[in-house]
């Protein structure tokens, strides 16, 4: 009896250390997926869940931020989804991957920690936008910054999408962000600044980590080797699209509160 009990305790410890903290096989869909199906499947977006290989526990940390990425070298939408599903045990993951035409795949439930932004993983939701983040023009490089659509630049030759890809991916992103802003009470702001760091003997030394809630860029969290989603990412436009998706407190509720005397000043 005692041996059985000890074995149970031991097994529990092992499962906590290895099963919950480390990758546990493919991630599973949670309540987010059902909720978002109601929102996304009403429209034109294709939405599915394909569990990522790598994710872990948040250990109770409150979600207060969304970290934006662009897929860069990982390529287009399908390749990135495949990578997060089939890569090695210590590889990256994100909660969502969004295609240029607005299709979206969820890969990790928001109650779990995806591996996309180093020290920000516990507190954040990670979203990968298919595309590139370069905020400048290099005539010797044929990649095009995804967000230059905003100023009417030509289509991205690496990820051609019929129709207006820029509008579509940003619309899907706004749907997803609006859901989480309301669910976790994430501030609908894009805070300025980035982490401070320096190099010592060729090694990166972190001086002051970035520490802001809201909608942030991967480059702000990890500026020593990441710039995505890039200087041209349309933060203001994203925020205004999200705002338009969050309902004002309904008139009915306000009238009810007024009737109960809850809005009356003394
Ligand atoms: Zn990134």
Description:
With 266 residues, the protein is an alpha/beta fold. It is built from 7 helices and 10 strands. The chain has a single domain, classed as 3-Layer(aba) Sandwich (Lysozyme-like). Helices cover 31% and strands 15% of the residues. The strands form 3 sheets. A 6-stranded mixed sheet has the order 1-5-4-7-3-10, with helices on both faces. Strands 2-6 form a two-stranded antiparallel ribbon. Helix 4 packs across helix 6 (235-245). The chain starts with a helix and ends in a 7-residue tail after the last helix. Residues 10-23 and 149-165 have low confidence and may be disordered. Zinc ion binds at residues 69, 218, 226, 228. Zinc ion binds next to loops. It comes from Poriferisphaera corsica. InterPro entries: Amidase/PGRP_sf, Amidase_domain, Ice-binding_C, NAMLAA_amidase_2.
Question: Which secondary structure elements does this structure contain, and how are they paired or packed?
Answer:
Elements: H1 2-20, H2 31-40, E1 47-49, E2 56-57, E3 65-70, H3 77-86, E4 96-98, E5 104-106, E6 112-113, E7 124-129, H4 165-184, E8 196-200, E9 203-208, E10 214-217, H5 218-221, H6 235-245, H7 251-259
Parallel strand pairs: 1-5, 3-7, 3-10, 4-7
Antiparallel strand pairs: 2-6, 4-5, 8-9
Helix pairs in contact: 4-6
Bound molecules: zinc ion (ZN).
Zinc ion binds at residues 69, 218, 226, 228.
């Amino acid at each position: 009896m005692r041996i059985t009990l000890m074995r149970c305790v031991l097994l529990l410890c092992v499962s906590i250390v290895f099963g919950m903290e480390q990758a546990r096989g493919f991630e599973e869909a949670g309540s987010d997926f059902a909720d978002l199906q109601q929102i996304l499947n009403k429209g034109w977006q294709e939405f599915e869940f394909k569990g990522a290989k790598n994710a872990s526990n948040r250990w109770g940390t409150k979600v207060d931020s969304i970290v934006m990425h662009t897929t860069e070298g990982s390529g287009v939408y399908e390749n990135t989804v495949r990578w997060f599903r089939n890569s090695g045990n210590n590889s990256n993951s994100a909660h969502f991957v969004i295609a240029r035409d607005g299709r979206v795949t969820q890969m990790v439930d928001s109650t779990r920690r995806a591996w996309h932004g180093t020290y920000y993983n516990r507190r954040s939701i990670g979203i990968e936008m298919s595309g590139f983040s370069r905020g400048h023009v290099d005539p010797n490089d044929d990649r095009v910054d995804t967000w230059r659509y905003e100023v009417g630049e030509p289509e991205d030759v690496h990820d051609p999408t019929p129709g207006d890809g820029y509008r579509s991916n940003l619309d899907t992103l706004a749907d997803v962000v609006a859901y989480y802003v309301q669910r976790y009470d994430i501030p609908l702001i894009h805070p300025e600044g980035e982490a401070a760091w320096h190099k010592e003997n060729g090694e990166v030394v972190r001086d002051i980590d970035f520490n802001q809630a809201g909608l942030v860029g991967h480059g702000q969290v990890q500026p020593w080797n990441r710039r995505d989603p890039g200087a041209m990412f349309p933060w203001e436009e994203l925020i205004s699209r999200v705002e338009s998706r969050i309902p004002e407190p309904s008139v009915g509720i306000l009238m009810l509160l007024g009737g109960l005397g809850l809005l009356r000043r003394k």
